[in-house]
DNA sequence: CATATGTCCTGAGAGC
DNA sequence: TGCTCTCAGGACATAT
């Protein structure tokens, strides 16, 4: 998502518009009028990322943080439809004409923040290191004291950023670790496998431009293809592609679906 | 402190 | 057809 928006770097923001819609507006901070005054006339110096958020660094050191959450998209063109378009940054001076914030459910957030606010809300006090960069010892150090299930801890953005519900299940299946196992009980071999599969799953998913699920919303410039590589996610009742014996089970952890193979991901002992 | 739960919002699909 | 219910790449305030 960040890469698709990267060509907007160097462009000037001419205006910030909320398309009229029967739907609830997304949360903006500050409110639209003030947001527009603060962003208009500024040049986008870079398009970055903090975990799952897209970050536009402006020439006055302020930043725009776009947080799509579950069903939001940040795009330069071609949103899935017009009715769920929530916010438009109109641009000039470069190849991109606009940045679009599209969000089916409207849970997304757009923030214009000062450098101090950025550090407060998105700095290391609030958010952990990126999942693609965290070293093994750091991952282990941060999680291993916890009594929480490993799957729930992996999704805690204060510990590390970038792992959501879908990928947490996929990572643990490939790492052969039961999702309900408390972090405290995991052994060095488990952490090694979790660390390896964490990177592997996310990097493969990025190569295939993410997972377009049954709701059809997630896309970058076209639909993602990683859903065809899912081994457990939304495969409850189907045979495990890894062992060919177990059938995939769905459980609920912290109000979210978890999928795993009871055969490959047994809680006892260490397997390879 | 660490951990658990309810809530925001819209739409799709299942079951009756 | 229409109703109700459940569920969804998330994060945060508030409760325990």
What's the SSE blueprint?
Blueprint: H1 2-5, E1 12-17, E2 27-29, H2 32-39, E3 44-50, E4 53-58, E5 63-67, E6 72-75, E7 85-92, E8 98-103, E9 109-113, H3 115-122, H4 136-143, H5 150-154, H6 165-175, H7 188-207, E10 249-253, E11 256-260
The chain binds a DNA duplex (16 and 16 nucleotides) through helix 6.
Q: What features would you describe in this structure?
A:
- With 272 residues, the protein is α+β, with helices and mostly antiparallel strands.
- It has seven helices and eleven strands.
- The protein folds into two domains: 2-122, MutM-like, N-terminal (N-terminal domain of MutM-like DNA repair proteins, Alpha-Beta Barrel), CATH 3.20.190; 136-260, Helicase, Ruva Protein, domain 3 (Orthogonal Bundle).
- Helix content is 24%, strand content 22%.
- It has a five-stranded mixed beta sheet with strand order 2-9-5-4-3, with helices on both faces. The chain has a four-stranded antiparallel beta sheet with strand order 1-7-8-6. Strands 10-11 form a two-stranded antiparallel sheet.
- The longest helix is centred in the C-terminal third of the chain and has 20 residues, at 188-207.
- The chain is globular.
- The two termini are 35 Å apart.
- Residues 268-272 have low confidence and may be disordered.
- It binds a DNA duplex (16 and 16 nucleotides) through helix 6.
């Amino acid at each position: 998502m960040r890469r698709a928006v990267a060509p907007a770097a160097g462009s000037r923001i001419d205006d910030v518009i909320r398309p009229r819609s029967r739907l609830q507006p997304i949360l903006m901070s500050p409110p639209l009028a003030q947001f527009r005054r603060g962003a208009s006339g500024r040049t986008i110096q870079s398009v970055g990322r903090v975990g799952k958020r897209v970050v536009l660094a402006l020439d006055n050191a302020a930043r725009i943080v776009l947080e799509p959450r579950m069903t939001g998209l940040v795009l330069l063109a071609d949103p899935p439809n017009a009715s769920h378009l929530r916010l438009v940054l109109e641009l000039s001076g470069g190849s991109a004409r606009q940045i679009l914030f599209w969000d089916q459910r409207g849970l997304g957030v757009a923030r214009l923040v000062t450098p101090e606010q950025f550090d407060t809300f998105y700095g290391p006090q609030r958010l952990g290191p990126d999942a693609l960069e965290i070293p093994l010892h750091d991952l282990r150090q941060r999680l291993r004291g916890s009594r929480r299930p490993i799957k729930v801890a992996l999704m805690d953005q204060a510990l590390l950023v970038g792992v959501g519900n879908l990928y947490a299940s996929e990572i643990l299946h490939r790492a052969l670790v039961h999702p309900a196992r408390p972090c405290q009980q995991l052994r060095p071999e488990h952490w090694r496998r979790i660390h390896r599969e964490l990177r592997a799953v996310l990097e493969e998913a990025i190569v295939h431009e993410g997972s377009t699920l049954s709701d059809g919303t997630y896309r970058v410039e076209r639909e993602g293809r990683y859903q065809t590589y899912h081994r457990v996610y939304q495969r409850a009742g189907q045979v495990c592609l890894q062992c060919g014996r177990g059938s995939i089970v769905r459980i609920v952890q912290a109000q979210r679906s978890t999928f795993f193979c009871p055969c490959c991901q047994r809680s006892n002992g260490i397997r390879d």
